[in-house]
# Entry
Amino acid sequence: MKWLDKIISFFFPEHCLLCRRPLKSFESLICESCLEKLPRIKSYCKRCGNLLPEGSPVPEGSICKKCAGKRLYFDSIRPVFKYEPPVSNWILQAKYQGDFVMAKLLGRLVRRMVAPFLAKIEFDFIIPIPAHARRLFFRGYNQALLMAMGFEEKKLFSQALKKHKHTPSQVGLPREQRLKNIKNSFEVPQKYRSFLKNRRLLLFDDVITTGATLNEAAKVLKKAGASKIYALAIAKSTL
# Structure
């Protein structure tokens, strides 16, 4: 999308948002030196995304206490940041203020942060969590799709998943209510079901709290025949 790149270059003159130093060609939003200033997640359960005390990573192949007994349809998950400033401010700016430029730059930043994760897994397509038609009508866009566009060299397949049931905002709701709200709200259009068979997918969302939305979406994709589903979220918030 060359037109979007031109808009980005015009409104964001390639300076770090934190220290104002000129950015290098591989940098997005912030410079390499300022990465440590961001609320990066360093210890988390790779099965459910639950945050763990720093210095206590879960051994490969094991699970944390919170996801023991849960039925998870995605095979692993990678939350990148804690939902704290300045990342939370950037997400809100893209999500509620219609800042398409910020959305794509944030996607580029996340792509840069998770390069080792992406190199380790193999996947055919990125599928952003879709928005219901009613929300698209009033908001005009799906922020998860805009952010996923920052993964330019990866294949985006947004049509593969549809949200056919309108659900109220999950913000502020307890886990049980979130699970109830999101249940049976996604579907894979019939014409794409055979195409998804045996595919390895990267499911993408901006913010996760309990992981209920990602898990419900993953369930539908697995039933459509996907062989592996990896989940990726820009930020992890807590109840």
About this structure: The chain has one domain: 38-236. The chain has nine helices and six strands. The chain has a mean pLDDT of 87. The longest strand covers residues 200-208.
